[in-house]
Specification:
By secondary structure, the chain is of the alpha+beta class. The strands form six sheets. Strands 11-9-15-21-20 form a five-stranded antiparallel sheet, with helices on one face. A four-stranded antiparallel sheet has the order 2-3-1-4. The radius of gyration is 42 Å and the shape is elongated. The termini are far apart. The N terminus is likely disordered.
Amino acid sequence: MFSFKKFGKTELIIEGVNIAVLLNEFNKQNIEIIKATKIDTTKTQLYFKNKYLSRIVAILKQKCYNIVQEKHSTEYNFVNNILIRWGLLVGCFLGIILCVISTFFVWNVNIQNDSSKLYNSICKVLKQNGLGKGAFLLAYDCNKAEMVLLENFENLSLVSVSLRGGTLIVDYTLKTSESELENDFDAKNIVAKQDGIVANIVVSSGTPQVKIGDVVTKGQVLIAGYKLDAEGNKVDCVAGGLVTAYVFKSATTQFPLTKLEYVRTDNFVVSNRLYLGDTLISENISTHNFEHYEEESSISCISNIIPLKMQTIIVYETEGIEVEQNFEEQKQSVIDQTRLLALEKCKEDAEIIDESVATNFVADIWFVTYTIQIKEKIS
């Protein structure tokens, strides 16, 4: 019935009278009772170290006391605490080792002034050549990385690759197109950058080729790079001046009377990817043959000590359901949406002169065209 554990504590509920006499007996035999609590007239709760258990039980039998309940908190709690602490220490130690190891690899790619949004493409090319994330720093060849990028991207003229800790810094310069070079070095004529109706023209040098109210097209000469001398002969010069025009920016939105709305069915598949930092360790990809589907992805951290994370990807099958649309009910919303599209084509500081909207119905589709007339420099 009784078990002895060297460490830990025991709680006994005993039944009997004259508890004071019993406690004196414990004291005489140098048995330390941590706590004694009287429950009622006959029951008392005793709390003591496990090492006294056998002696206390012997005394209780001798004094004719009954043991009603016995509870133990053994040394396993103590051992578990030790193991937990050691586990934390080992985890911290492994975390430190991983952090130290990680300093020997490329973990991040930072592309400066990425105006052409080449980040994903550059990272892919570097990865394919063993020069991207996960590359060994001590053997990393920045010159090789620069040559690889120049060979794979024809629109780059200059590339600079450097290392800062575990981060790869890439900076590049795009080549200037021939048309841009022609515009940069065309000092003879001033030409129209876009279509419009001339609103104002100021000539500082050269000869104007258009007048207010003329309709001009992109590339048309506005101010020619010559002037007439006293005898009426042409003399080349650098054209100078400013031409503003009324320009029309428009956008069109289609609104069909019926459309397909895709809703999820009960079919889906789940895939998982395990990452250490940004490096893929393992993956379990589920295939599917859904014709139409949508994905949801979430990332959860597995450990607070090491950068271990799990990506879960759920692919839901969807099916199209044809629903009717009422144009009159949504007309204003469609117009507002189309206006925003037209405004996106205008500069933020553009001077708006006029706005108009036109609707047209063709083959069960409403076409909404929004036009904004602005005044801006075209030279």
